[in-house]
Design a protein that fits this description.
Bound molecules: alpha-D-galactopyranose
Structural class: alpha+beta
Strand content: 15-25%
Order of helices and strands: HEEEEEHEHHHEEEHHHHHEEHEE
Largest sheet: 6 strands, mixed
CATH topology of the largest domain: Ribosomal Protein S5, domain 2
């Protein structure tokens, strides 16, 4: 699925060419997992898997949403924006609602066709790409004058209010502000970023899609967030100088281990440890030391498995499998957890042997034909000018 198919579908359906076409990429995250909603740092990047949008304004207040991938359609009125019983449509309706409530310039309906190649439920943020991409496209089409940060916040609110997941801002930020060849060092407390180089001359980023998405994923995500909030609120009450996890030390956490629920303690320990790894990972990356960086990725996986408890057998198996394979510098589960992809940094000359070994082992263990992707780091959302 690419932009040309989306444009053709739009033309066939709406009998005219779209006024605008937009590309919104999915994302990877190198390190800094479950830290975005804990005022931490993350290291994501936009990738060469994207959702494409074609749109034109209408003369009435009707909005027609057309999904190429699902071959489905949903219609609504700007005068009465409410949730649909179609999950896919809610990601888009949430964005329309957030914008309509704050910006009078969204004053006419539109026709939309969208589709892409970000695999669904694989932890590559297809939903954030859909939300960010629509927000970006409407901003262009209606001259709404939102900044990219405004758009990321709109997309995040849509996910909270219409999809029911209290996600952080990493996925939207990466989809909107990615930069070719760079990873984004995003400070989720201050909502500022810098770009760090990620040299891919000698290494590849390989994703293995576990092919599972355990039911727990959404409720457990919100539960982890609540546990972190509970932990932080304990320290805020007892220490005037503690506002966020950044102000909490390992020593203070240890001192109060017995005062905290055991799970809450584990979650806080993970958050502090991941922040510490994040700092070391940034140094390693800046120095071009991918061996040290990869070792930290393995440690992150252990933390996500044992302290944060968001991994699963399939992901653990995929990560363990790489440990004795030549040329693998680092591997870990990526994203929210309970399924989706692992991310692996692999020396280029070792990639094909690794893929073969993982395919054989995963099929024999789980009876699943594993999907893999070798991804490139790209720019974030953009208007596509060449559609023909
Ligand atoms: C999901 C969320 C993000 C982030 C990751 C975990 O992808 O959407 O905000 O919390 O999980 O790092």
């Amino acid at each position: 699925m690419n932009e040309k198919v989306v444009a053709k579908t739009f033309e066939n359906k709406f009998k005219s060419s779209p006024s605008i076409a937009v590309r919104a990429p999915g994302r990877i995250n190198l390190i800094g997992e479950h830290t975005d909603y804990n005022d931490g740092f993350v290291l994501p990047a936009a990738i060469d898997k994207a959702i494409y949008f074609c749109l034109s304004k209408r003369n009435d207040n009707t909005v027609i949403l057309n999904s190429v991938d699902l071959n489905d359609e949903h219609e609504l009125s700007l005068d009465d924006i409410k949730k649909s019983n179609k999950d896919w449509a809610n990601f888009l309706i949430g964005v329309i609602k957030e914008i309509k409530d704050t910006n009078p310039k969204l004053n006419a309906g539109f026709n939309l066709t969208f589709g892409g190649d970000v695999p669904l439920g694989a932890g590559l943020s297809s939903s954030a790409a859909i939300e960010s991409g629509l927000a970006y496209a409407l901003n262009e089409l209606y001259n709404l004058n939102f900044s990219l940060l405004d758009l990321a916040k709109i997309a995040q609110s849509a996910e909270h209010n219409f999809a029911g997941v209290r996600c952080g801002i990493m996925d939207m930020y990466a989809s909107l502000m990615g930069k070719k060849g760079k990873v984004i060092q995003l400070d989720c407390k201050n909502l500022t970023h810098t770009y760090l180089p990620f040299e891919m001359d000698d290494v590849s980023v390989v994703l293995f899609n576990s092919g599972v998405k355990h039911n727990l994923a959404e409720s457990a995500y919100n539960e982890r967030r609540e546990q972190c909030e509970e932990g932080l609120s304990f320290f805020q009450k007892n220490y005037a100088e503690i506002n966020s996890f950044r102000d909490l030390s390992f020593e203070t956490l240890e001192k109060h281990k017995a005062d905290l629920d055991a799970k809450v303690y584990d979650r806080c320990l993970y958050v502090l440890s991941e922040e510490d790894r994040m700092k070391r990972a940034t140094v390693a990356l800046t120095e071009g030391n991918l061996e040290a960086f990869g070792e930290l990725m393995y440690q992150t996986h252990d933390g996500l498995k044992d302290d944060y408890e968001v991994s699963c057998d399939e992901l653990d198996f995929l990560v363990d499998l790489t440990k004795d394979k030549p040329g693998v510098l680092g591997a870990r589960m990526m994203g929210g957890g309970f399924g989706g992809c692992t991310i692996n940094i692999v020396k280029k000359d070792a990639v094909s042997d690794l893929i073969e070994a993982v395919k054989v082992a995963y099929l024999s263990k789980f009876d699943i034909n594993i999907e893999h992707f070798q991804v490139q780091i790209t720019d974030g959302c953009s208007v596509i000018y060449e559609l023909a």
